[in-house]
Amino acid sequence: MTRPSAPDLDFLVPRHVRSFEPYIPSKPDAELKKLYRCDHLYRLNNNENPLGPPEAAQAIIAEFDPERASLYPSGDSYYLRHALAERFRLDPEQFIVGNGANEVITFVIKAFCQEGDNIVTADKTFAVYEWVATFSGIEARLVPLQDVTFDDEGMLQRIDSRTKILFICNPNNPTGTYWSEERLRRFLERAGPNRIVVLDEAYAEFVDRPDYPDGMQLLREYENLVIFRTFSKMYGLAGLRIGYLAASISLVDVIRRTGVVYSVNSIAQEAALAALRDDGHVLRTREHVAREKQFLCETAERLGIPAQTGEGCFVMMRMPISDTLVYRKMMQMGVMIRSMTGFRYPNWIRISIGLHDAMEACAEALSSVVAGER
Ligand SMILES: *Cc1c(COP(=O)(O)O)cnc(C)c1O
User: Fold this and answer.
1) In this predicted model, what pLDDT tens digit does every residue of 139-151 receive, in sequence order?
2) CA 58 to CA 236: how far, in whole Å?
């Protein structure tokens, strides 16, 4: 029975919000340890950098003057945008910094889409493009991966007169596959200038391949292109929430209108600025990831677990039992992985690259899950 004063949610809430299943974040470590009765927990579910933030960024965080907490940050991340412009030889007006790349996804969808419009992306990719579109009342058209890679042909076929944005995750989370520069250029030519093409390069700094396209440089040629990058992955600042987009000045001018100022805090802006200058950190992280990825893949091979591995700081594995059951079993052994049913990959798990002791613990847990099945 509803109380007379209870708001009428059928009246208040749009249908696309009512029917949307909210994302349930994982509980804090202390709660999880109690729940699964483990005394140690290795978090290998979020693709965080196990080496932490670059030293210079750590110093900024440690030395932040607490009195400054009372002051608003720069509303447009002024110095960071200038540093990014210098780094990529672009104009500071080509950047918008957000509260994580997740926030700039919402800016872009709000800027270009209205009721009746649609976006096109893949079915098995980073889910936030689809989520933001769906709970904003915009149709998300999901094109199945082809050879575990974004299907350019299939995406182009789904474009209609109401398609506004094409989202490509390059390299793709979770498969690690990527389009070469040649393939991307062909796609951009065929998509034409009247669709926004978003290239999510959240893992760009992990890729060291000659044919991998540098979206930042392609911005000079394609005025409909939008690049996403983040400080959460390579730069180890996930907890501070800072990411950005880059695009032509005319697009940025529009996208900026949909952003709320002051969403990026002072510590995040300053730590990101320091992090950006540490190229040694990128090289060290790449080496670490390459080494531990190989260790994980060898483990999978030894255990007879099929693995899908590519670029980025994660590996996917196909388990002989349900991924949600694998999640629970591995949690009891203190290893948290990502179960992939939510990515439309039932029975697959995604493991982020951690420090070596975490990888050892993970290998042991995988081996005991597989042994339990025999
Ligand atoms: C992690 C991730 C992001 C978002 O990162 P933020 O923490 O919001 O900056 C965006 N895209 C992909 C593909 C990611 O994996």
Assistant:
1) 999 999 999 999 9
2) 10
